[in-house]
Design goal:
The protein has 341 residues and is an alpha+beta fold. The chain contains nine helices and 20 strands. Strand 6 and strand 7 form a beta hairpin. The structure holds flavin-adenine dinucleotide.
């Protein structure tokens, strides 16, 4: 397992290594493990006796999400769908339908570059539950996997009686890794609201969402990391103002194969990992799910097309591009209002 590296820093939250509860003079931090990564809940207004119960509710909810749309668990609902060889519509949860709806919407807007059917290519290049390949996959292997990634082979059906996913090719393989954390983050926020908690910051992996205020009545702040090997070097700070934020980067999640750096972001049009010089895309949006979908989409398409799409879709975006030995950044007009010194 390649444990996920964080590209955002939650300011004023100390990331602790154990999975216990912690009280600080800046509120309470709960954290634990899920989906091959870490969840963190930072709360300002929780009663002491409520903490253990809340921690249990959080972990149970995340475990349910994991059992629903993980491709790493052979028994998850999504793995059952991926193994299913027929073409009858298969019932899915409301949560999975939400992710697929948003993924298909962003997929359409990017001309298929953000593609949740990229799973066979993700596995071929060793970023899903499969082992990393020993050698670069050959043209035939890439072409066979790529043939399974056309979004037209997947159909989401929703009506008053429920929601279903249907495929017209038995071997297609849906991969919700890119947006699962965003969904789980929004889901945690809903849990906080149900529990009457109004001042919180929740995160699963690289997706973050906040509401209300942090310590000393201050807004929640998050920092984007510099794209260097030095973790916690700050590129820019933002005030989230109740929004979701997510960063996709190609500089931490990679491995070397036949002398080349292999990124976990796959370009569905080539069937190969991206190799352009856009190294980080951060998106702020109303939900963490949306931010988590767009950041990957922009990273796939590269700097110039990402800028054009961000402007066209009025997205709040911060891009970092490698230029020779240096890095340059580009900030969309919508992102500027979130920046703080
Ligand atoms: P993101 O940029 O958000 O997403 C990158 C991922 O999206 C890639 O790894 C690939 O899977 C997919 N992708 C690549 N290219 C495209 C594209 N063009 N369009 C759409 N998607 C693309 N990891 C483990 O190691 N062990 C686990 O048990 C595990 N369980 C998980 C369970 C769930 C429910 C989910 C959602 C993820 C799980 N993961 C697990 C994966 C892991 O935690 C991260 O989601 C993964 O590393 C990518 O997250 P990211 O934020 O780094 O990258």
């Amino acid at each position: 397992m390649r444990f996920q590296k964080f590209l955002l820093i939650i300011l004023a939250v100390q990331m602790l290594n154990s999975c216990n509860n912690h009280d600080t003079n800046q509120g309470t931090i709960l954290h634990g493990k899920t989906m091959g990564t870490i969840w963190t809940v930072h709360i300002m207004d929780i009663k002491n006796h409520h903490k253990d119960e809340l921690r249990r509710l959080i972990q149970e909810q995340l475990d349910r999400d994991d059992n629903d749309f993980s491709t790493w668990k052979t028994n998850s609902a999504l793995s059952h769908f991926n193994r299913y060889q027929g073409s009858d519509p298969q019932p899915i949860s409301i949560g999975m339908a939400d992710i697929v709806t948003e993924a298909l919407r962003i997929g359409m807007k990017t001309g298929g570059y953000m593609n949740i059917m990229v799973g066979p290519l993700v596995n071929l290049w060793g970023f899903g539950p499969m082992q990393e390949p020993l050698h670069t996959p050959n043209e035939n292997e890439i072409a066979s996997a790529k043939a399974l990634t056309n979004l037209e082979h997947l159909r989401l059906i929703q009506d008053i009686n429920g929601q279903w996913l249907q495929k017209d090719l038995p071997s297609i393989y849906v991969d919700l890794s890119t947006m699962g954390e965003g969904y789980a983050t929004d889901h945690l926020a809903r849990l906080m609201e149900e529990q009457g908690i109004t001042n919180y910051l929740v995160s699963v992996g690289g997706a973050v969402l906040c509401r209300g205020k942090s310590s000393y009545d201050k807004p929640w702040k998050v920092a984007i990391q510099k794209p260097t090997d030095r973790e916690n070097a700050v590129e820019a700070r933002v005030e989230l103002k109740g929004h979701g934020i997510s960063t996709a980067g190609s500089y931490r999640n990679y491995y070397e194969l036949d002398g080349k750096r292999i990124s976990h972001i796959i370009d569905p049009s080539t069937g190969r990992p991206i190799n352009h010089n856009l190294v980080s895309a951060t998106v702020i949006a109303t939900t963490a799910l949306e931010a988590d979908g767009w950041d990957t989409a922009l990273l796939v398409i590269g700097t110039e097309r990402a800028k054009m799409l961000a402007l066209k879709e009025h997205l709040a975006v911060y891009l970092i591009t490698k230029e020779g030995k240096n890095f340059t950044h580009w900030i969309s007009p919508q992102f500027k209002s979130f920046l703080v010194g």
